[in-house]
Amino acid sequence: MSLTDQEREEIIxxxxxxxxxxxxEEDLLIENNSLAAAVNRIYYSIFYIISALGxxxxxxxxxxKQILGWFNKNYISTGRIEKHYANLFIIYSIKEWKEIMKxxxxxxxxxx
Length: 112
What we know:
Structural class: mainly alpha
Helix content: over 70%
Radius of gyration: 16 Å
Strand content: under 5%
Largest sheet: none
Oligomer: single chain
Low-confidence stretches: none
């Protein structure tokens, strides 16, 4: 089933709102030293906004690896977005997330 332009705009608006709401949650979580949950909210905020971008270009999926592949192919590989700006979203393996959390928690404990 193909979406009308109006349906597509409504989905985009909803995902942008989700992204904004999620990033506001991240601020509160950081203030309350809930760093693991804050990293999760940052990731999802990025996922929602990239999903909105995908819908704008008639690409839609709920699968994180598929939207990542689409984003990489259309924005990172083409140089439209510099790779270092996309690094947070590209990190998707459990091992990498655990390493990031250990690093962030070390700051909280004063190890750096």
